[in-house]
Write a structure and sequence with these properties.
The chain has helices at about 5-15, 40-45, 55-70, 90-95, 100, 130-135, 150-160, 225-235, 255-265, 280-290, 315, 320-334, and strands spanning about 20-25, 50, 75, 110-115, 140-145, 165-170, 210-215, 220, 240-245, 250, 265-275, 300-305. The protein has about 325 residues and is an alpha/beta fold. The strands form two sheets. Strands 2-1-3-4-6-5-10 form a seven-stranded mixed beta sheet, with helices on both faces. The protein starts with a helix and ends with a helix.
Amino acid sequence: MNMIEALNDAHDVMMARDPDIVVFGEDIGYFGGVFRVTAGLQKKYGKTRVFDAPIAEGGIVAAGIGMALYGLKPVCEIQFADYIFPGFDQIFSEAGRIRYRTAGEWSVPMVIRTPYGGGIFGGQTHSQSPEAFFAHMPGIKTVIPSNPHDAKGLLIAAIEDPDPVVIFEPKRIYNGPFDGHHDRPVTPWAKDPRAEVPEGHYTVPIGKAAVAREGEAMTVLAYGTMVHVALATAEDNGIDAEVIDLRTIVPVDIETIEASVRKTGRCVIIHEATRTSGFGAELASLVQERCFYHLEAPVVRVTGYDTPYPHSMEWTYFPGPARLGPALKAVLED
């Protein structure tokens, strides 16, 4: 499956198992969503379980919180991550706090899914990467898959989680693994756009990273689309880099990160979001705190720029091999 098909399958598997699951968002019912992630679900499960919502993200999130408190398990889609901010207060002030406000008596078992990042020439209003805002929210788990297998397993785990989970789905790899060897979409997709995804129910644990590539020379921390860029850049430059796919940024798997950096002594962090106060800053701080005496070079970040996402300059903004390659080499030379 590609990631879209894997996410669709996760919905299908869980809706068949649990009648309390409801799915809603803008255009996700009859149309199946802008990216077709929910295609066919309304026809199979009916309009009371899969339905369209008004163009009001605050209302979508608020309704989901109410449903979750009532005993349902809502899966809400925000059409693009850029549109999530009208629901920001509901997520921050309500969804993330109710367990704490009620001393554990109530929880909010809801999932908020949203496509994020660049790669489709969406410009400033369809390409942002706002994950750092949500990583800063207490009570919210934040998940970012890099491949179809993990996307399905993480979504199922999120639906089964008793607390709110936000899943950012990288648009650039929705339809298949990105060929990260190129800075521009010359050959944007690998020859086989699908990956092995088990049938039926399985989970990928929230809060557990994966070692996408083993190595000894340095550690590269990445998530989402940047995992593919990191893998391709290390291969093209002949660098024995260990690539860690975080999969979840909150909770972050600090044990896997620490073990890798202690082994390699060097660390490069890559993410698509803007640099200042991006999640890479938190990762750099954690690495410095945990691995200071093992580091042989400063921790380096390769990120997007501190500007809104530019439409005409998308592939210059996007961190690719042309920027990551020199960073890896410079860290090796320090």
